[in-house]
Design goal:
This protein is of the alpha+beta class. The protein has one domain. Strands 3, 4, 5, 6 and 7 form a five-stranded antiparallel β-sheet that branches. Strands 1-2 form a two-stranded antiparallel sheet. Helix 2 runs antiparallel to helix 3. The radius of gyration is 17 Å and the shape is globular. It starts with a helix and ends in an 8-residue tail after the last helix.
Length: 181
C-alpha cells in the first residue's frame, strides 16, 4: 500500500498548497480582495494546462483555466456579478473594467507561471491600445516562447467565469476581440 501512495505522490507533481491572489474590481482597482484557491481548484486549473501538446493548445486550455479561476474567485468576491464589457453591469458591486481585468488576469498568469504551469508561454506586461485618442483598452499579455509572438489575454470581453479571449496582440491592437461595450 505504501509504495502505491508514494507513486501517487510522485506523479502528482509539485506539492499542493493554497494559492492566493488579489483581485481588482469596481473600476480602476478601486476595491481589491484576496482570493484563496484551495488545493483541488488549483490542481484542476494546472492539470488542465498540462494537457497542452503545443503553444496553440496551451492558449486554448489557458482560456478555459483562467475562466475557471475567475469563476472560483467570484464565489469568494463580488466579481461574480461582472458581465462582459462595461455597459451591462451598471454600478453593481463587483463590476470590472479593463484595468481591473488586465491587472487581475496578469496576477493570475504570474501565479500560474511561478507554479510552473505554463510550458509554452511567458507572461508579459499588460498592453494598452488607444483609438481616437480617448478610447483606451488594456489586456494581459503572454508571449510564445518559441516564436516570440505576443498574445492579448482579455477577460473583459466575457462574463465572469467564461473562458477568456486570447488572440494575437497585433490583431487585438487593431481592435479585434469582441463587440461588447
Amino acid at each position: 500500500m505504501i509504495p502505491r501512495l508514494l507513486l501517487l505522490f510522485a506523479l502528482a507533481g509539485p506539492a499542493l498548497a493554497e494559492q492566493r491572489v488579489a483581485v481588482c474590481y469596481n473600476w480602476d482597482c478601486a476595491a481589491q480582495a484576496e482570493v484563496v484557491f484551495d488545493d483541488y481548484q488549483w490542481l484542476e486549473a494546472t492539470r488542465l494546462l498540462a494537457l497542452a501538446n503545443n503553444a496553440a493548445g496551451e492558449r486554448a486550455l489557458l482560456a478555459q483555466s483562467l475562466g475557471r479561476l475567475y469563476r472560483w474567485a467570484g464565489e469568494q468576491t463580488p466579481i461574480r456579478h461582472d458581465l462582459a464589457g462595461n455597459g451591462a453591469d451598471g454600478d453593481l458591486d463587483g463590476r470590472m473594467d479593463c484595468i481591473d481585468h488586465s491587472t487581475t488576469t496578469t496576477r493570475l498568469l504570474r501565479l500560474l507561471e511561478a507554479y510552473g504551469a505554463l510550458h509554452w508561454h511567458r507572461v508579459g506586461e499588460p498592453a494598452r491600445r488607444t483609438h481616437y485618442l480617448v478610447a483606451q483598452h488594456f489586456a494581459a499579455v503572454i508571449e510564445e516562447q518559441a516564436s516570440g509572438e505576443s498574445y492579448a489575454v482579455d477577460s473583459w470581453f466575457v462574463d465572469n467565469g467564461q473562458p477568456v479571449v486570447i488572440l494575437p496582440l497585433a490583431a487585438w491592437m487593431e481592435g479585434e476581440g469582441s463587440s461588447v461595450e
